[in-house]
Amino acid sequence: MSLEELYRYLRWRMDPDDERAVMRFWRIVKAFEVLKEKNLLPTNPRVLDICAGTGIAGVAMAKATNAKALTVLDARREDLKKVEKWVEIADLDLKPEVIVGDAREVSKLVGEHDIALLWGLTMPHFDAFDAVKLFINVALTLSEDGVFLLEEADRVYGIFYQVGYKDMLVETKTEEYALISVHEGYDPIRGVFKRTYYKLPGFEKVTEQEHRLWDIASQLALGSIFFREHRLISKMEHGVTGVSNIIYLKNPRKKIAKELEEG
Questions:
Q1: Which of 33, 50, 194, 255 has its Cβ near the most Cβ atoms within 10 Å?
Q2: Closest of 42, 84, 85, 49 to residue 70, by C-alpha
Q3: φ, ψ at 165 (rounded to 5°)
Q4: pLDDT at residue 12 tops 90
Q5: How far apart are CA 22 and CA 148, in angstroms?
Q6: In terms of Cα–Cα distance, which of 106, 114, 67 is closest to 86?
Q7: Hey, which residues does 183 pair with through a beta bridge?
């Protein structure tokens, strides 16, 4: 069912009309500037923001690196319409290319880029097999010295150990409504938890979703197959409040990616 329905109620901080989202934007810019100062990012890159939402991270990277091109890709057309507002906030002279499409097919939808982003703790949308398709496509899209950055958390430790998995969970609470999710099952083959989302009061069903609760190690291991360089830049290392851990992958193994793509 529709991700647009889910994000309509989750109110993830990526709307350029939300002051808290604007604060988040400048924090993301700062995190990318830290990486730039450490010489971890290409100069004047072509930036690709995957699962971009409103394009908040892609525009932040363009701002931090003085990017010469920006492409934003998402399945949600309405969110992508807001990328121009982020460009305005960043005071950039840049016209983003906007693509509505499937991240698992990104190499078929865009040309070559130097930096690819998957920002905002997005990996739960990809099951174990979809993640392989995603990494293959990103590797094929990037230049030889290209960089793939993922903002991510360790959910095995954070959810299963620190908090404990909940059959019912309040996802969002505002003055008008609360959004809750309810456990509906688990698929051991795809490694996904199934949850149904309801809006209160009224117990109105919003959507059904499947989530893969990734840990950091699994993502790094997957990255090591498709990229020659792989490392974790922890929250403590980059030091920017409001930005999570960053998985840093560089130099795609295009031959491996191509062979797996062709089967």
A1: 50
A2: 49
A3: -65, 135
A4: no
A5: 24
A6: 67
A7: 195
Which residue in 93, 42, 83 sits closest to 65, CA to CA?
A: 42
Cis bond before residue 188 (omega within 30° of 0): no
Q: State the Rg of the chain over Cα.
A: 18
**What is the C-alpha separation between 166 and 174, in angstroms, rounded?**
21
* DSSP conformation letters of 87-148: HHHHT-----EEEE--GGGHHHHS--EEEEEE-SS-GGGS-HHHHHHHHHHHHHHEEEEEEE
pTM above 0.85, yes or no: yes
How far apart (Å, rounded) are the C-alpha atoms in residues 128 and 179?
A: 27
Helix axis angle, 216-226 to 128-141, nearest 10°: 40
How far, in Å, CA of 102 to CA of 163, rounded? 32
